[in-house]
Amino acid sequence: MIDWDDVRYFLAVARGGSVRAAAQRLGVNHSTVLRRIAQLEKRLGARMFEKRPSGYRLTDAGEEVLELANQMEASSHQLETRVFGRDQSVRGLLRVTLAPTLATHLLMPDLADFARLHPDIELDILSYGELANLTNREADVALRVVYDRKTLPLNLHGLKGPELFGSVYMSRDRLAAWRAGVLDAIRWIVISSDGIQDWARGGEVGATGAPFRVTDGEAQIVAVRQGLGITTLPCFVGDADPQLVRVPGAGLHLYGTLWLLTQGETRKTKRVQLFTEFVSRRLAVYAPLLAGLR
To answer: N or C: which end of the chain has fewer CB within 10 A?
Structure first.
């Protein structure tokens, strides 16, 4: 019998293109991935990959195994979701994926309230940059900002929440200095992957210095508090921060709509239903803040 765990490691290498990428995705070390691949190759009597300077490439045998491995994975996920969907107990694991800013600056008090209300539910909050995949059962519930509803996968079930807006912000002290005629450079503070959006350039305060780039949202917020310059933020972050103020003349920008998403049979479980209903009610209360209606 082929070990399904070995197949999972094979799929991770095939999709990531390297042992390192597979190890990061699976949360294991490099040697574990190599050992699992070796076990699968020994069982099947064929090499699955060729190691090249650009990464790991599937052999002909690996290509054949990949098609069957994808079928095994789909069957495994279907089995898990059907069994999980029959579980109506208010206990057990519940995995929730959402953006770090939403977790840290908006919903963490509510997640704590839910945990207190249901002490037998083990909450696993996945609030890293890359959102987990519901179809692959990496999470049970996803809270996502969606600009176009048509982009939602057809296999996901959605509960629509409030719209999310953003604006341009700077520190109160820096704005006071600008109004007083202080000529220090005002920088754009941007997350490297985002750059400066066209909609953000309409305020009265213009950037005069070289951009200041960071890699994550928390560093971005701290930098603007330090008076380095101006930046774009969701209104629920910028308006709630007493050290920040909107740049005069800056308008509002629609990021998208918040959706609570579930998949397949998962949505029928009691703990998923309780969680989505609870968070949906809390989001409705936050609607004015999310819309930038101060």
So the answer is: N
Supply 191's token pair.
Answer: 């997350």
Mapping DSSP to helix (H, G, I), strand (E, B) and coil, where does residue 251 land?
A: coil
Question: Rounded to an integer, what distance in angstroms lies between the CA atom of residue 49 and that of residue 58?
Answer: 4
Pairing of strands 253-263, 212-214: unpaired
pLDDT beyond 80 at 75: no
pLDDT tens, position by position, 119-171: 999 999 988 766 666 666 678 898 999 888 777 777 788 889 999 999 999 99
Cβ–Cβ < 8 Å for 189, 224: yes
Report yes or no: 126 and 97 within 8 Å, Cβ to Cβ: yes
- Token pair for residue 292? 């930038």
User: For the range 51-57, what are the long-range contacts, defined as Cβ-Cβ under 8 Å and sequence gap of 24 or more?
Assistant: 54/17, 55/17, 55/18, 56/13, 56/14, 56/17, 56/18, 56/19
32-59 pLDDT, tens digit each:
999 999 999 998 889 999 988 888 999 9
Give the DSSP letter of residue 208: -
Instruction: Name which residue leads in pLDDT, 114 or 24.
Output: 114
Asked if residue 242 lies in contact with residue 125, where contact means CB atoms within 8 angstroms, the answer is no
Q: Which token pair is 243?
A: 């050290």
The residue count for the chain: 294
45, with CB counted inside 10 A (0-12, 13-18, 19+), is exposed
Pick left, alpha or beta for residue 200 (phi over 0 → left; psi -120 to 50 → alpha; otherwise beta).
alpha
